[in-house]
Amino acid sequence: MKTPILETERLLLRSFSMDDAQAVFHGWENDPDVAKYMFWSSHNEIKKTIEWLIFETGKEDADDWYRWAFVRKDTGELIGTGLIYLEEEYNKYEISYNLSKKAWGNGYTTEAMKEIIRFAAEELNIKEIVGRHAIENPASKNVMTKLGFQFVKNIPYDCNGGTKTYEGKEYIWKRQ
Hints:
The protein contains five helices and eight strands, in the order E-E-H-H-H-E-E-E-H-E-H-E-E. It is an alpha+beta fold and 176 residues long.
């Protein structure tokens, strides 16, 4: 299934294109504060962001991988990304998200992920979704809590391509 366009009050959620490389690179991929808790390493050159976009746009028609670009409706600015995908190791769907530092603290991630979870539940009939975060990243915990995720257990949380492991927490969302 092709990743559909979704909308919230303030955001347009759309697929990525190769035209997004500069905005992604400068928005969050090259920012060590944003990249600190990402699974992959921060991009130190635009070439890595282009490679990431090639991978993401190649997944566009997958039925187990849905990635959106978060675009502000009022400015047209690309400010972040959200993903729901089938984590094969656990055979459960998992969410992930990143937001440009200048957009932090405005509720954009919660707003976007709420719509992504609605899509997953209603259109894909997903009944459970996992979310994970590093303990040192309380903003991610706040997003999951606002979305109705419940704490499951403490876990190791790998970042930066597996070169850094933090103490983490795992949460689960269950369809009502």
